[in-house]
Amino acid sequence: MSDLIVDLFAGPGGWGHALHVLGVRDVGLEWDEWACKTRAAAAQTTIRTNVALYPVRPFVGRTRGLIASPPCQAWSMAGKRLGLIDRPLVHQAVADLAAGRDTRELLLTACQDQRSLLAAEPMRYLHALHQAGEPEWVLMEEVPDVAPLWKQYAVVLRSWGFSTWSGILNAADYGVPQTRRRAILIASRTRTAAPPEPTHAKFSEPETFFGPGRRTWVSMAEALGWGRTDGPVPTVCAGGGPGGGPEPFPSGSRKTLSDARDRGAWKNPPLHPRNPKAEPPCSCTEESPRTPRCGGGRDWVLRSNSQANAAIRPVTEPPATLFFGNRANECVWTTTGPAETAPPAIRITAEEAGILQSFPPAYPWQGNKGQRFSQIGNAVPPLFAAHLIAPHVERTLTRNDFVLAA
Question: Which of 14, 18, 46, 50: disulfide with 39, CB 3.0–4.6 Å?
Answer without folding.
Answer: 46
